[in-house]
Amino acid sequence: MNTQFLRKPLAVFVLIIIAVFAIVVALNKFKTPKPPIAEKPKVIGIVQLWHVLDRFYDGLKKGMNDLGYVEGKDVVYDYQNWEQNPAKINEIVQHHIDNNADLIYAVGNPSVEAALNLTKAAGKNIPIVYVLADKPVETKIANSLKSSGNNSAGVTNNMSELIPKQLEFLKKINPTVKKLGIYGEGFNVPGGVGAWVIKALKEHASNFGITIVEYKTDVPPGPLLTTEFERIANSIKPGDIDAQMHIPGHFYADQHLAEFVHAKRLKIITIEPILEEMEAGGLYSYSADLFAVGEQSAAIVDKIFQGTKPSDIPIEFPRKNILGINMKMARDINITIPDSVMAIAGVIIEK
Amino acid sequence: MKFKLYHKLFILFLPAMILPFLISGMINVFYIQKLQSDNVLRLNKEIGQFVATEIGKFLHEQFEILRSISNVYQESSADKKFQDIILDRFLYKTNGFIDLTMVNSEGKEIVRKNVFQVIAKNDLIDRKNNKEFIIVQKDNIYISSLIIKEGKPFFVLGKAILDVNGSFQGAVFVQIDGRIMQDTIRKVLKEKKIHNAYIVDEKGVLIAHPDISQVLAEKNFSYIPLVSAIIQNKNAAESLLIGEYQNEKKKAVIGTVIPMRFHLPNVFLFGKEIVSSAETKIKWWIITEQLASEAFSEFYKIIRLAALVLIGGLVVLIIVVLLFAKHIINPIEKLHYASLQLGKGNFNYRVALNRNDELKDLADSFNEMSEELKLSEEKLKKSTWENIKKLEDKINASEEEIYELKKARDNLENKLKKFL
């Protein structure tokens, strides 16, 4: 290489100018690519109570996506469902603990309680976010509404709180209702939201001139319980009850569908505590929007991933309740929904 | 102590070249910083006013709904069933409404509806002595601060029901889910791409914040310097405040405080204006925050670039000065060496300068001088040798004479001795 030219001052000067310019341009143009939200995807272990409640899960995923979490890149979901079989809850929670989930997303009181107990027993402070957990303070999931005092936070459920409104709508639709049938003790997961709904029904029914007719069983969960349900349901004659309310958290997975069949037979109203179940055959439901609650819970998950302790996140309530009417069921049981109720319905199912 | 010309030139030229560069750079940086600061303050002020406007719009909409409720309620008084349906529709279909109450002119609740609770006739109360009734009777409207009951945040808005003569006939009150305010704040944050915005009351308690947890936890922001200034100084509370401080997340921010003003719209009933518009002061303050690092990011970019250009420029200047000094000094040093050689008598030494300026002329003159000196020396040497030869010849001739004289003397001495 001919270096003679380097001895010339002008050549050196020009080279220096070019070098400085190149450095300036490089330092200003070079941009570090935006790093992903997390170095490796966060794993959210889902403890789902029942597939009918998957709207929570859908809302969670949408909410996380809206917050910038790309599924597969920033977050992965390990979906496990105990399908209202309590024997499987602990196994599912333990699975998430053993697989080092970054967060456990629990649906329903039994899921939350199992997650709290097992994470504590394992000595792992895995944060827990929940939905559909009724009365979190009374059930000792949380110390107070302002702070759980533990590794959980979430959106509580208001199903039992809305029971008086459900009964009010019942009386508006059919003022003659006096006897309200429920499948209670033995048919539902103990300590679950169903227990709180039954408690609220018994507390408020008399204010509306309604008597609760509770069908109970001591048959253990399983195929025998299904048979027992059908036996009891078939034994109900027209006039025994004027309406029925579906109690959530039942062992028999398709109990709600069986109840709808009998409702048509008896020509009675079925009140659903959850909008999604109403779509399958209930007459009406006044409840929180599960999808919106899922989205609401995503904000809590995000806060925890950003470093906030679950105990620093106050418990939230669902933002909105929706009155849903199933006009097909209304036609099947020959019920006319009054204008006062139709005027405020948020969801009307025609077919 | 000798101070080399090379160093003198370096010390002289470098500041002379750098100083104007530095001074103009510093002046530019100063003005850019001032411009950027003014921009940041102006932007913060605009954003604060935008948030205030959006919240004002939201409240305006709510009061329009209340006005519709009171109008419809009065107009449907003959049909109680229809009236009931209409009130239900307003309650269940208006976003955020939790409770709706109609109160008569004496403060007694006539109708009350709630989305969570069943309200029986014997649940209706007398609000005659309640703060909200007293205020709505006097001011025609009422806006509460944020209330959190059993974990649920809400506001109470009240509006007077007036007859055609403007006489007070009662009031309509609604409870609105406080989380609606979060939606308005979040919308603003997204639109204006600012770091944070929130609302506090006169005690510094959060009314609205994009993070609902802060509101539900009933956080008090009175430790924030701007909020503290509002609480402590009523005069300060009436005007726009701007300052830099650390926020609740310990981040340096530029914050602006704007007092909330709400403008009640003109009330028209049956084509007649009943109440002229009046500005209502709500004791809320809107705080908007920009991250200091982001607010001045453009300025810092410019500073970084200016610093790089300055450093680069300084390096170039130093090299230029060095090269320039070298360019001047080198020939002088060559001439100096040549003069030393000349002093030593080396008239054959010549200065070789490959340039085309006065120094080349000087070198040429020097070389000419050397040549002349060389020739002079040679001439001098030649004449000196000639003179020496002449002297030698003369000495030789003198020596011969002296020899002859000596010979003659010796002959005389010998003759004299013989004679004696």
Looking at how many chains there are and whether they match, the oligomeric state comes to: heterodimer
Beginning-to-end CA distance, first to last residue of chain B = 85 Å
Strand order of the largest sheet of chain A: 7-6-8-9-10-11-12
How much helical structure, as a percent, in the residues of chain B? 55-70%
> Regions of chain B with pLDDT < 50 over 5+ consecutive residues?
none
Q: Please report which band the strand proportion of chain A falls in: under 5%, 5-15%, 15-25%, 25-35%, 35-45% or over 45%.
A: 15-25%
Total strands of chain B: the figure is 13
Gross morphology of chain B is rod-shaped
For the largest interface in this structure, which chains are involved and how many residues does each contribute?
A: A-B, 41 and 38 residues
Rounded radius of gyration of chain A (Å): 28 Å
Query: Roughly how many Å apart are the termini of chain A?
Result: 86 Å
Query: What are the segments of chain A in which pLDDT stays under 50 over at least 5 consecutive residues?
Result: 1-6
User: What is the rounded Rg of chain B?
Assistant: 53 Å
Structural class of chain B: alpha+beta
Give helix and strand order of chain B, one letter per element, not per position: HHEEHEEEEHEEHHHEEEEEHHH
SS element count, helices of chain A: 12
Q: Helix-strand pattern of chain A, N to C?
A: HEHEHEHEEHEHEHEHEHEHEHHE
